[in-house]
Each structure stands twice: as structure tokens, then as C-alpha cells.
């Protein structure tokens, strides 16, 4: 008996919406063949139509160029930011961020000679939290 199993694939919201539109004019069997998916997948998409449409409506397109509003970002930098920091002295505007530093951890890759087998081991978890802080105003420079 030949196996007819196919590789599992995840469908995007856009693909599911396309399937829902195609279901308006075609039978589920035909849609399953067109999209190379199982009949049960098509039925499940039809069953969850309301939820799929709600997700698509709320999230919209958040990939590629649509995710970045360049004009809005530029407007914010040029018009809103100066108003927000207008009453502050430039010495009072900071940005800080923290990260973890695994100071005993070795690099994850090695320059081993071909044919040799480097020994493994447990990676140490010794960690220090480091905070980076920057000020908006450029520091005064000494004349050299």
C-alpha cells in the first residue's frame, strides 16, 4: 500500500484568507487539491473563518515595508521629540539598557583542526548584568 502522506506546512493568515475566498466558488475537495493541502485542513479553516478574519483585521500586514512607517517616524523625530524634551536640559536626557554577560562562557564555535574532535562540556552559566547608559549631549572634548 502506497503512502499518501504529505509534509506538514504552516499556512499564513494571507493563505488562509485566500482559501476562504476560493471556497466561495469551489468545493472543499477542489480547494484542497489547488492548495496542495488536506481536506480536513480546508474544513478546519472554514470552521475557524470568523477567528481568521478577526486576526487579519486586527493585525494587518506587519511584514516588510508595511511594518515601518518612515514618514511617521521622521515626523516624530522632527516635530514631536523636540516638544517632549524641550523643557529638559540636554545633560538630563539619557538612554539606558541592560544585558547579561556570560563572562566564563567559551565561544560557541571553535577553530579545530580537521579530523580532531574537540571535547565538549557543560557551558558555565556565570553571569553579570551590565547596564549601558548614553547621554544625549556630546561630551566635552579636551584639546590635545
Descriptive account of the structure:
- This protein has 144 residues and is of the alpha+beta class.
- Among the domains are: 13-59; 89-135, no CATH class.
- The chain is 38% helix and 12% strand.
- It has 5 helices and 2 strands, in the order αααααββ.
- It has a two-stranded antiparallel ribbon with strand order 1-2.
- The termini are far apart.
- It comes from Rotaria magnacalcarata.
- InterPro entries: Homeodomain-like_sf.
- This is HTH psq-type domain-containing protein.
Write the layout of secondary structure elements.
Blueprint: H1 13-23, H2 28-35, H3 39-47, H4 49-59, H5 70-84, E1 94-102, E2 127-135
Antiparallel strand pairs: 1-2
Helix pairs in contact: 1-4, 2-3
Organism: Rotaria magnacalcarata
InterPro entries: Homeodomain-like_sf
Protein name: HTH psq-type domain-containing protein
Amino acid at each position: 500500500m502506497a503512502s499518501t502522506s504529505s509534509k506538514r506546512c504552516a499556512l499564513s493568515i494571507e493563505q488562509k484568507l485566500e482559501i476562504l475566498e476560493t471556497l466561495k466558488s469551489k468545493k472543499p475537495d477542489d480547494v484542497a487539491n489547488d492548495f496542495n493541502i488536506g481536506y480536513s485542513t480546508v474544513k478546519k479553516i472554514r470552521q475557524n473563518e470568523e477567528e481568521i478574519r478577526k486576526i487579519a483585521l486586527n493585525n494587518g500586514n506587519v511584514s516588510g515595508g508595511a511594518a515601518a512607517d518612515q514618514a511617521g517616524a521622521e515626523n516624530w523625530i522632527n516635530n514631536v521629540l523636540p516638544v517632549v524634551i524641550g523643557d529638559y536640559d540636554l545633560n538630563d536626557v539619557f538612554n539606558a539598557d541592560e544585558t547579561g554577560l556570560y563572562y566564563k562562557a567559551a565561544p560557541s564555535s571553535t577553530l579545530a583542526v580537521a579530523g580532531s574532535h574537540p571535547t565538549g562540556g557543560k557551558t558555565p552559566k556565570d553571569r553579570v548584568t551590565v547596564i549601558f547608559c548614553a547621554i544625549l549631549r556630546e561630551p566635552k572634548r579636551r584639546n590635545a
